[in-house]
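User: For my dataset I need records formatted as: sequence, then structure tokens, nothing else. Please produce one.
Assistant:
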Amino acid sequence: MATTTLTLSGYYVVRVYVNGEFAAESETGYVHPAETSMAHSFVYDVEDAVIYNEVVEAPAGVPVSMKIQTVDRFGNLRTTGCDDGWVMKATGPSNFDGSVSDNGDGTYTVSYRADIAGPYKYTITRDGENICQWGGYTCAAGTQSGTKACTLGYAAGEDCAFCLTVFEGTSLNTTSGLYATVPDASEIALDGSFAATAWVHKTAGDATNVRQYVFSKQSPSSGKGVWLAMEATEDAGTYVIEAAVYTGAKKGWRHARATVAIALDAWSLVGMSYSGTELSILASPSGGALEIVESTKYDSEEFGRRNSQPLRVGAGLMGRVDDFRLYDGIPSEVTSLESNAFCPAKVPSLVLHLRLNEGNGYATKDAVGDNDAVIGLVYGSTTEGGKVKLTCPAGHVITDVLFASFGVTDGAGGAYVVDGCSSGNSMEVVTASCMGKATCELKASKATFGKDPCPGTGKSLTISAACGGGMSAWGETPQAAPTLVGVLDVTKSIEPTCTGLPPYMQAMLDDGSCSTAFEPEVNQEVSFGVLRVDGCGFPDLTARDSFVSSVVYPEEMVATADDANTCLPRSVLAEADAVQVTWGGDSAEYCGVFNNAFVFTYAPHKVGTDAKVHIELGGATVMEKALNVKPLSASPKSTSACATSAESGVMTVISVELIDTHGNAIDVPTAKDSASIDIKAFGNTGSFVVPTLLSTSGGVFTYGMTYPTDGDYTLTVRVAGEFAEGCGNAMVQVSAPEMHSLLHASSVDAEEPRSRHVSVEYDGDFYLFGGVTDSEYLSSTIKYSTGVVEAVSEAYAYATPVVVAGAEISAMTAVEVVVDTASLIASGKMRPDCADMAFVDDGAVMPFWIDPLPGCGSSNTTAWVGVSKAGTYHMVHGSATATSLQADPSSFMTFYDSFERDGVFQDGSLWKLLDSECRPTTFTAAAGAFTTSGVVSTSGTKSLMADTFTADGGSLVAKVGLGTSYVLRAHLFDSGCDGAHWISPTVNACSALTMDKAALDRQIGCGIYTGSMKDVYTKMYPWLGTSVKRSSGWHSVEFSSDGTTVVTRIDGVEVDARGVEGSLDEIFLHSGLFTGNEEAPGYWDAIYAVPRVVGLSVNLVVEETKPVHYVVGAGWSEVVTPTSPPARASAAGCEVNGKWIVSGGERNGFFFSDVWQLDFKKGSWSHAPTFGVGPSGRHSHAIAEKDGVLYLSAGKGADGEVLKDFWSLDLKTMTWTDHSATVPKSMMPRFGHHSAVVGNALYVYGGFVSFLPSQELWEFNFASMQWRLIAPNQLTVKSGLGGDAPMYADKDYVPLFDNTMGRIALLANGFASDADRTGAYSSDVDVVGSSCSMSAVLATNSERIGLRCYDDDGSVATAYGSKLAVLKGAKGDYVVYVVASEPLKGLPMSTAY
């Protein structure tokens, strides 16, 4: 037996040789190719009407095809089909899928249409495997050797993707005489409403008075049908456009004509629409927008008459035509026809779209259907015996016979089909007779075709052919109509995105959300993408345009030197950050389908919201996107400020400003930033103290630190695990505590001894009425206003006397107080921001303002305080959380301006330009030279800017009207550059000097004048240098006059003193050396003037600083009312709905039973008459209220009688009701007790019973109207940590008041080493189950508490257990709080929890 493996398919004969001699031979057999191998198969182009290699290129909107040749693994071309699962997918401007059909011979036709021009990437797969090879025509052989004879190309990338270029193509050159013909079909019948548009391109030299059809569907002989035509006039560029519809009715035709200017050598859009009642002509005159240029309306609705003629585009048209569109129906807006004309839109009403993109061949495809057109179509049909004559347009010959049949056919106008018999040699005969001829004629006879294909049957000869060969229908130079495909639309394109980019670009982005692209951290690289979009909304994949991008920042004023080496501040853009632009088209792997993708990568170097990503294209700005550049996380570069000395028990302030590693302030800290702050203070004993966070403002954290004992403490402030700058590792000396006395306002002597008064709280104030002193009964009502304090840290801890003496003050005057705030801050007696500095007079806050120069933290901080008389006042300070109480300086200063407005002369400005009689030529000014600016400032956010850079500057004056003694001060910003900026107190008018100048009679002024001295500040007149050297930044200029001498100071340094008399009438301010110069702008801020009281001294007596407790607004005052209750003592009362109800009391043996009420809002007392029999006069009784009813119990009456009665007063009806019958015999008469309502019960405790202090607690249940004794226990409390708290002895129990309302009230039973005191403690704690009649609380030193609930028979019904938080003390346990607990079932009676 012999075996062999055959790898070449084909026919074989097996011959057998024995010893070299032929022995036998088999029959011929065929060896079939093996199964398809995708690795060996390839795609190739085929010759068709579209003369392009459709494997790699195709015109847009044209259906094209190519073939797959399947090959087995041995290289044999397969000759059979049946492979399925083929998929063609293309991505590009508009993704599409192709279709694959089986040809049954081992090849498969791949058909596709790419509607949008641009680059594409496509794959052809079968069962997940890709074809990776392609070839040209020569690869379409039928044998294995055919593959060896051609050159195969290989697809790009790992996915074996083919690159396809789809182009817009050209237009139809109808000057050639050739035009497009679409065979008749129902979609293009034009027998209803329709609209049509086409682009036409006309040139000079057009033939006149000749009808040139844009399109037509009419009979060649009668002309009946539908058409749109143009006719050139004698005026070049002027055309008569005519539209016609033949309806077949009586009148037959409907016409419209319009004369329109058409741009020559340019594309124009023309069209028509017909609704049945209105015929319109559309055009874009002179290349403008599409509009209705003529419209004719009709009374009756008639539509075009149906005909079988083909639709012709461009017949007889001189020029070019492109992009013909036919719509079924009329759109509501003509503009939609225009917008569609620029884009390959697929609106449902578009029934025919000839894009005319092919550029060669005789066929042009319908982009929306199957109504393809033929270029240069000639056709004819005749019955047997007749003749068909075909004639091509001049200069053309027949180049293709498209259809020929002698037999039975159907169809019309180039859409013929065999409908029965047909001579088999029809195509051969017609081709031989017509090809290459301008005209050919054939007779429909048996003699012409050699035989009768179907004897006895009527036959016809039908021919369709295409003409060409002369002037190309596609022209020498392709030229297409306008389109927005591939034309960048910057309004749609430059939008940031972080999705849809190629994988290698997508990896450059964060998480696909652009979450950090526009909120980046400083100096950290971030990216975002841009996908360019064209005017039709498709990806713009045209050749790369160069984007120019950078991160830009606002302009900054910087000092630079010009050519003359003169220092000038110039407004320049801050240094921009480069942006790296990555283009998606740089990778050939993607076939250009990501040519529209760009990634912009940058690392902004400045924190803030002023930066923008700036992108330019072709010199034009196409995008500016604002950035919010954030600092990095908090770092040890953060700064901290603290006091290095403190008083134990008094809170001091520690501030931390978070700063990142690059030195940027963190204005919006994250939770991580906040958590990075670690502050501790370690005492000598090793214990440590942590501060309390008081406030946050941006990235500044303010903490309050209270040192518990005196001694040395090591304060550590760490940020991100390391010591912060400033107080990162500081030693704090803590002194022993001092007694802090109250400092408050008092309009009444409320501190005289008094007793037996009645009191109440309302709206944060404490009210007192009546009582007795050692000599009289009182009827006054006084209150203590506690002030608005949410925490003790808001109170001021220190007060320093301010003594104003030496002269009389007749009106509010601003006086200067110089404070060494640096020392106060260091000693912990003032906050680092000085916000806790205030000045008070008898507890009331005085108007004051802290001058920003030199400002807080200086040894000579200046505060201006408004005083009305000489005397002693106090500067209070040392509050950890108080807010600044500074007043508006203009409220107590004669003149103040900080320029917090838009423009110098707005909002009642105090300033005006210098009057003409005092304006020398060198001082020429315009109002625009002075404005307000936010570039620099000291007080507020704005300052006065004098523009001497782009303008000449000039002079301003402001009326003041002060006397001869005054202080004038101004803040001047020195840029360090050349210029003139000075100020002067003006008393008299200007006087002329030589050289066309003028001067003030005062002849005093101070500031910058580099025309005289460049390096020092100058004074005048004449201009002389001072001892103070210039430096960049803000400086203080001051003039102080005592009436005879004016002293000039710069930054507090005296630079001049001269005798000058006169009142301060005006302030004179000047900027500018000479006109026409580019000089440094000047800035002024906080200009103020106050009277100076000669002889007045203002002294801050630091050595008399004392510890206080001062709260703004706190103090005693008398409530003065028109009437008031008579003087009395031991009355009782309570507050009800904004009124204080007071009843009873006694005076000198007289016992009151009346009722009075104080309306808190009105501030008035009134007597309240009552009805019915009421309680007798008494004192030392108790009153409580529930639901608008007062309950009065017991007290002491006439003749010393101790009472036990019980009454109620309905406050609505003012009627008394006696409930004394409810009082049990065991409830003894009493006085001096107190009562309160809790939930649904009234509780009465203590008082004198039988003239001995009572320990009884009674409960009155409002529902049952019954009393019961709750507790006879004596209460002992222990004063210790956490304030007063109950102290429990082991296994002693504490009765439970009432738990029906979810409240636990505890009475402590235990022991203490100090004097016994009584007290009750309550907590809002939910108690599980409280339906039993009695319950008790057990407490032990085991830190457990049990609640026992007893039934009526004394058995334990339910028990509850809870963990207590307990502070351990030297003498016992101090209970802090009780937590709600779960039921503990079946606990024995003797168990303690």
